[in-house]
Amino acid sequence: MNKRAFTFVELIIVTAIIGILTVIGFVSYVDFVSSARDTQRISDLEKVSSALKISKQSRWVYPDPGDNFSITNNGYTVAYQWFLNNNVRIPSLESLPKDPKESDINYVYSITGNKQEFQLATTLENDDTPIAHLTGNYSSVSKNVLPTLFLAMISTTPIEIHDGVWDGSVNRNLFIFHRSSNNLPYLFDTQVPYSEWLTFDELITIAENGDHFWQNNDYRSCIEIYEDKKYISDFSNTGTTEQYQILSSTGALVNTDCNTQTDSFNGI
After folding, report:
1. CA distance readout (Å), 40 to 119, 126, 132, 172, 227
2. In sequence order, what DSSP letters do the residues of 130-142 get, joined into one string?
3. Nearest CA to 141 among 160, 117, 176, 105?
4. Distance, CA of 195 to CA of 181 (rounded, Å)
5. What is the pLDDT of residue 222?
6. Which residue positions in the chain have pLDDT lower than 70?
7. How far apart are CA 90 and CA 78, in angstroms?
8. C-alpha span between 184 and 18 (Å, rounded)
């Protein structure tokens, strides 16, 4: 009776096939897990957004970010930024979610200076090409100064963003935009933000081309911006122009210095 065994070459081929299938299966599993974590991150921020809006109905303002630093323009506080940690009190949430990949990493949270608008931020794995994910109800009134509420920075003191003030630093280059990879709220192995240090104009161009940042869709005059406490600073004596955006009668965004006789901030 003849018995036929596998040859050495056949064993090598079978082993190679099993190895390839194992690698394919592992990669598919890793991609699935990564995608599931991204879905969880987006869901977490939506849940927190809803809870924040409910909280504001009774408290009139959004809670401060935990361990926050202020973002200033010409010394005027325009936003408070940092952790969505246990120092943030949201009554309808028993606990605040954290990044599903690294349990010691908090999501990032920022509010406007008057505490009437907010944004939340996370870093998505995005098939191993990380991008920023932002959500919230913030609407920029000035893409040239404050297009979003987030900077890729950590600080224990106020951060100035305006050109030529104090030491002349240009921290506007550190703005984080939705679905952008240039600046990230945090890296997955640390809470430290990531930045490619592109120029501000480059960041704005990239964001505009991809429609990746909030723009004004509410204000039709400078007076409305002032009355809603969204003015940024007093530009009446600086010669600065195109600081604000308002909707024209046609619905198009136009730039204005908000310093005309008929449509001013009344010396603010």
Report:
1. 18, 13, 14, 30, 38
2. -EEEEEES---S-
3. 117
4. 9
5. 85
6. 1-6, 8, 10, 14, 19, 21-32, 163-169, 233-242, 259-268
7. 22
8. 39
Report, in angstroms and rounded to the nearest whole number, the Rg of the chain calculated over CA atoms.
24
Residue written as tokens 């940024």?
232
φ and ψ at 85, to 5 degrees?
A: -115, -170
pLDDT in tens, 148-169: 999 999 999 999 887 655 455 6
CA geometry: angle 154, 143, 133, nearest 5 deg = 55
State the virtual CA torsion across 153, 137, 54, 70 in degrees, nearest 10: 30
Given CA atoms 150, 151, 154, 157 in this order, what sign does their dihedral have? negative
Q: What are the C-alpha distances in Å from 61 to residues 4, 221, 226, 252?
A: 80, 24, 18, 30
On whether the CB atoms of residues 71 and 159 are closer than 8 A, the answer is: yes
Q: State residue 157's pLDDT score.
A: 93
The encoded tokens of residue 198 equal 């592109």
Burial class (CB in 10 A: 0-12, 13-18, 19+), 228: middle
At 37, which amino acid appears?
R
